[in-house]
TrEMBL record:
<keyword id="KW-0436">Ligase</keyword>
<dbReference type="GO" id="GO:0006541">
    <property type="term" value="P:glutamine metabolic process"/>
</dbReference>
<dbReference type="GO" id="GO:0005524">
    <property type="term" value="F:ATP binding"/>
</dbReference>
<dbReference type="InterPro" id="IPR029062">
    <property type="entry name" value="Class_I_gatase-like"/>
</dbReference>
<keyword id="KW-0547">Nucleotide-binding</keyword>
<dbReference type="GO" id="GO:0006221">
    <property type="term" value="P:pyrimidine nucleotide biosynthetic process"/>
</dbReference>
<feature type="domain" description="Carbamoyl-phosphate synthase small subunit N-terminal">
    <location>
        <begin position="51"/>
        <end position="181"/>
    </location>
</feature>
<dbReference type="InterPro" id="IPR006274">
    <property type="entry name" value="CarbamoylP_synth_ssu"/>
</dbReference>
<dbReference type="InterPro" id="IPR017926">
    <property type="entry name" value="GATASE"/>
</dbReference>
<keyword id="KW-0055">Arginine biosynthesis</keyword>
<comment type="subunit">
    <text>Heterodimer composed of 2 chains; the small (or glutamine) chain promotes the hydrolysis of glutamine to ammonia, which is used by the large (or ammonia) chain to synthesize carbamoyl phosphate.</text>
</comment>
<comment type="function">
    <text>Small subunit of the arginine-specific carbamoyl phosphate synthase (CPSase). CPSase catalyzes the formation of carbamoyl phosphate from the ammonia moiety of glutamine, carbonate, and phosphate donated by ATP, the first step of the arginine biosynthetic pathway. The small subunit (glutamine amidotransferase) binds and cleaves glutamine to supply the large subunit with the substrate ammonia.</text>
</comment>
<dbReference type="Pfam" id="PF00988">
    <property type="entry name" value="CPSase_sm_chain"/>
</dbReference>
<dbReference type="Pfam" id="PF00117">
    <property type="entry name" value="GATase"/>
</dbReference>
<dbReference type="GO" id="GO:0006526">
    <property type="term" value="P:L-arginine biosynthetic process"/>
</dbReference>
<keyword id="KW-0315">Glutamine amidotransferase</keyword>
<comment type="pathway">
    <text>Amino-acid biosynthesis; L-arginine biosynthesis; carbamoyl phosphate from bicarbonate: step 1/1.</text>
</comment>
């Protein structure tokens, strides 16, 4: 391999003449030093990585970038996330299944990754799009670099791409299907056709992220991360949590509030849940289109009114449909840890973490259902309650980790709802005994 080199010599006089307009003294000139500088370019390659990846969007735009993580070709829906921190929680959030997540914060990877911050057992997103990949990590909990972590989990990533321009395009045109590829054998036209032939609407993504069998959850929020300031009643309530793509921190928060938790798959029959005699049922977050999972809507219908229920994100949307309402696909959705929400019951404004592309249309809901929260960015429905059916739901993440803790009170409200449900059951027992005796 050829090596290019450049050699030259400098004397003391040369250097003196460079930095002084006056000639050197005779004594100084007598002391002449000569040294040689040799510069080599090694193998002739550039010291930085060349663009080796493409993101081709369905609108025909092609974005050249540099790859990290896994290689190959992947199709997905491109969405942008406005969080400043928490990329590891985003990577392991099952609600991102089928999507490329573009981070609007330009510098990603500086804290590396660790195994305490994961929200599930694996990464479900289709790929990660960022502006600048940190060349080093600096965090006392760091276990490995972001690129190494993604490569091990077969997740593609690209950097050195204009994320601001792509975000503006998504805000203007809405979420777009894209193809991410490091395969030079595929033409731009082939990748464009792939993006145009795939759609995320109407696809059941829940079944691919849900657990396969029931199991118990016992882990609580670790003491060093516990952020609840007041004393929490530790009454033992049994909660059945439907796993539509549930995040670990939702389960940790429930456990920290004293709940015994049984996690069940998305296809678990309502009749089997009711046989467990739970004090409450949680319908979790999850990916994709709620209209694509009619079996889940039917399950929710068969549980509503029989036991207190709490829906989060996908669970909120399924509750909306089960009550007779309709859901719709948003232009570019809500993804980030800085969304303002107003609690209409208290007037308080919460900063919330959100991740959804669908919303409930409150105009289609039946009488008696109350809108409890609204998103202040666009006025969309962010929370529901139906007191007659012992029902509450939120379109955002009250467990937010990392992120704002403004909405953690929702778990307290669910505890109170279950407490009321228990009291109703106790009050009805004497009436039932009297009826049987007569």
């Amino acid at each position: 391999m050829a090596t290019k080199a450049l050699s030259f010599a400098l004397s003391f006089n040369d250097l003196t003449n460079c930095f002084s307009s006056s000639p050197p003294s005779a004594a100084a000139a007598a002391k002449v030093s000569v040294f040689t500088v040799r510069c080599s370019s090694g193998n002739g390659e550039r010291p930085w990585k060349n663009s080796d990846a493409r993101l081709v969007l369905e609108d025909g735009s092609i974005w050249r970038a540099k790859s990290f993580g896994a290689s190959g070709t992947q199709v997905g829906e491109v969405v942008f996330n406005t969080s400043l921190t928490g990329y590891q929680e985003i990577l392991t959030d099952p609600s991102y299944a089928g999507q490329f997540v573009l981070m609007t914060n330009p510098h990603i990877g500086n804290t590396g990754v660790n195994f305490d911050d994961e929200e599930s057992m694996q990464c479900f997103l289709a790929g990660l799009v960022i502006r600048s990949l940190s060349i080093s990590t600096s965090n006392w909990r760091c276990a490995k670099a972001l690129g190494e972590y993604l490569a091990e989990r077969n997740i593609m990533g690209i950097y050195d791409v204009d994320t601001r321009a792509i975000t503006r395009r998504l805000r203007q045109d809405g979420s777009l299907i894209g193809v991410l590829s490091t395969d030079n054998s595929k033409t731009d036209e082939q990748l464009l056709q792939m993006s145009k032939s795939w759609d995320i609407v109407g696809v059941d993504l829940i079944s691919g992220v849900s657990c396969k069998s029931p199991h118990e959850w016992v882990d609580k929020t670790k003491q060093q991360w516990e952020f609840s300031s007041g004393k929490v009643a530790r009454e033992n309530f049994h909660v059945v949590a439907y796993d539509f793509g549930i995040k670990h921190n939702i389960l940790r928060r429930l456990a920290s509030y004293g709940c015994k938790i049984t996690v069940v798959p998305s296809t678990w029959p309502a009749s089997e849940t009711l046989k467990m005699k739970p004090d409450g049922v949680l319908f979790s977050n999850g990916p994709g289109d709620p209209s694509a999972v009619p079996y889940a809507v039917e399950t929710v219908k068969n549980i509503i009114g029989k036991v207190p229920v709490f829906g989060i994100c996908m669970g909120h949307q399924l509750l909306g449909q089960a009550l007779g309402g309709k859901t719709f696909k948003m232009k570019f959705g809500h993804h980030g840890g800085n969304h303002p929400v107003r609690n209409l019951q208290t007037g308080h404004v919460e900063i919330s973490a959100q991740n959804h592309n669908y919303a409930v249309d409150p105009a289609t809901l039946p009488e008696g259902v109350k809108v409890t929260h609204i998103n202040l960015n666009d006025g969309s429905c962010a929370g529901l309650s139906f007191p007659a059916q012992q029902l509450m739901s939120l379109q955002y993440h009250p467990e937010a980790s990392p992120g704002p803790h403004d909405s953690d009170y929702a778990f307290k409200e669910f505890i109170e709802l279950m407490k009321q449900g228990k009291n109703r059951t106790k009050e009805s027992l004497p009436e039932l005994s009297a009826l049987h005796s007569s």
